[in-house]
Amino acid sequence: MQYSQKVMDHFMNPRNVGEIENPDGIGTCGNPVCGDLMTFHIKVEPHSDDLNAARISQIRFKTFGCGAAIAVASMASEMAQGKTLSEVIQMSRDDVANSLDGLPPIKMHCSNIGVQAIQEAIKDYLKRIGRQDLAVKVKGCPKESH
Amino acid sequence: MAREEKCIYLDNNATTPTDPRVLDAMLPYFHTMPGNPSSIHAAGRKARQAVDSARGRVSALLGCRSDEIYFTSGGTESDNIAIKGTCFAQEERKKIITSSIEHHAVLTVCEYMQKFGYELVKVPVDRHGIVDLDFLNRAVDDHTLLVSIMHANNETGTIEPIQKIIEITRRHGAIFHTDAVQTVGKIPIDTNALMVDMLSLSGHKFYGPKGIGALYVRRGIRFDPLAHGGHHERSKRAGTENVPGIIGLGEACAIALNEMTAEELRLKALRDRLWQSIWEKIPKVSLNGHPTERLSGTLNFSVEYVEGESMLLKLDLEGICASSGSACTSGSLEASHVLVAMGIPHALAHGSLRFSLGRFNTEKDTDAVINVLPGIVEKLREISPLYQR
Ligand SMILES: Cc1ncc(COP(=O)(O)O)c(C=O)c1O
Ligand code: FES
After folding, report:
1. Residue A133: exposure state from Cβ atoms within 10 A (0-12, 13-18, ≥19)
2. CA distance B224 to A75
3. What residue owns the CA closest to ligand 1's atom 7?
């Protein structure tokens, strides 16, 4: 199995690793396939419930998983940084995989939890600002894999 | 090329580098000695002689007669012949017993035989990977055709108590086969003293070439061939002999017979020193496999809070080749069935690493691991959501 240079670059030098003190949202997703784990912390500015206005101003991740999972989390964090919440919600696993110049087929599932964990963080943010109604509309992580 | 030169190969349970002495012995049989052992001319007779002499060298290592050795293409084929061949040669007994930690070359074949009406029982193992003898004792009965339990496990190196297993098996007249792919050439095996009925071995696990192996079958044990055709291998395995491979296997056996005892001690010292240093330098690591009943070159352990493939990738970038039982490294995305059968929690199987040392490794190689592994683990733990300092 061969990873692209981009995957190896993000694996060796992951961007945005860590946690945020007093985050606006935390999202965790586990991988039901192989049992890995990803956590994202986000800061949102402005603190709006308008998904087209609120942007991710800061994002940090932690991953327990394979090389692809680490690269996916790193790439997804870079792609989400500075984007509006609605843009981030629309981000797909293929967008992330394509930005990494592709993933081996058996590793595509690792890109799932990347986008799902970020969506969970956005859900968490919406709940915290009292917009449960908007939060339920965001896909997030499949129930069984929390 | 620069990368290749740097390769520190610590994956000898996967396969070993061919010993240069083995290669030298083989080379003439590709071009200057072209004969087919079945031909009656001089070239053919020479090839026949060479094959016969190699058979003698294999049997010398196993303490058996040379007509009890059948050459095959490797461990997988030997396992297939042993299991399917004994099933197809009879109709009375319909039960197969194996263990939960076998190589897929045994497990998958046994599972396949269920299609033909065979009942399959898998004997569980304890936390060190030793088969449960009480369970086995209860499972073997007069309907049992075959008990197939490996001599040592490829992932953990745990050596099974086959002497005791054979005693249990024989009480009910069942045939005993052992996949000894990981032990032949590494620890002494006396097929006669053990009273083992069938035994699989593979050349590339002990410095012979890939694609050659053998099946030992005690005289009097009946089995059908899988490959029908000409009269090769006493009509039990048709096909022109892999002459260079057979010569290589014979040479590998002769070298092993000479050097095994000293080599086992050397590897054990090297491995124990490696584990000692890892254990001192990296918190939260745990050994997988039996503390003492274990192949002397095998070191399998788990690193808490990190995943195996990411460790392998970082080791690879440092030029170090190792292996892992992580779900992320397996084609099936399931954690090692061996570690799981030993009751090792999923998260720990995930963080397992295996270094398997061999003939061409020295302290320089294990020192390289000790130099880079603590840093690699530290970095990955910093990324891990499971890790709290
Ligand atoms: C225990 C065991 N059995 C069987 C095999 C298969 O042997 P081969 O690669 O020669 O088919 C291997 C190695 O891959 C092994 O470790
Ligand atoms: S996280 Fe397990 S395969 Fe990628």
Report:
1. exposed
2. 57
3. B75
A60 and A77 Cβ atoms separated by less than 8 Å: yes
Q: What are phi and psi of B336, to 5 degrees?
A: -45, 125
Q: What distance in Å separates the CA atoms of residue B105 and residue B200, rounded to the nearest whole number? A: 11
Between chains, do B328 and A36 touch, taking CB under 8 Å as contact? yes
Which of B313, B330, B348 best tests the A interface by mutation, with the highest count of A CBs <10 A? Answer: B313
The full length of chain B comes to: 389
Q: Give one DSSP letter per residue of B176-203, joined into a string.
A: EEEE-TTTTTTS---HHHHT-SEEEEEG
Task: Tell me how close the Cα of A1 comes to any Cα of chain B, in angstroms.
Answer: 10
pLDDT band at B44 (very low <50, low <70, confident <90, very high): very high
Q: How far is B347 from chain A (nearest CA, A)?
A: 8
**N residues, chain A:** 146
| Complex ipTM more than 0.85, yes or no | yes
Q: Is the pTM above the cut of 0.90?
A: yes
Interfacial residues of A (vs B; Cβ cutoff 8 Å): 3, 8, 11-12, 14, 17, 28, 33-39, 62-67, 69-70, 106, 109
Degrees, nearest 5: CA angle A74-A80-A86: 150
Binding site membership of A65 for ligand 2 (Cβ less than 6 Å) = yes
What are the pLDDT digits (tens) for B64-87? Answer: 999 999 999 999 999 999 999 999
Cβ distance A79 to A95 under 8 Å? yes
Instruction: Answer yes or no: are the C-beta atoms of A68 and A110 closer than 8 Å.
Output: yes
b/e per residue B17-32 (b: at least 16 CB within 10 A): ebbeebbebbeebeee
Report the interhelical angle of B308-317 vs A5-12 (nearest 10°): 100
Instruction: Answer whether B232's CB lies under 8 Å from B240's CB.
Output: yes
- The SS3 assignment for B231 reads coil
Closest-lying ligand to the alpha carbon of B106? 1
Report how far residue B261's alpha carbon sits from residue B256's, in angstroms, rounded to the nearest whole number.
9
What are the pLDDT digits (tens) for B195-210? 999 999 999 999 999 9
Angle between helices B308-317 and B363-383 (to 10 degrees): 130
Residue B83, token pair as written in the block: 């299991």
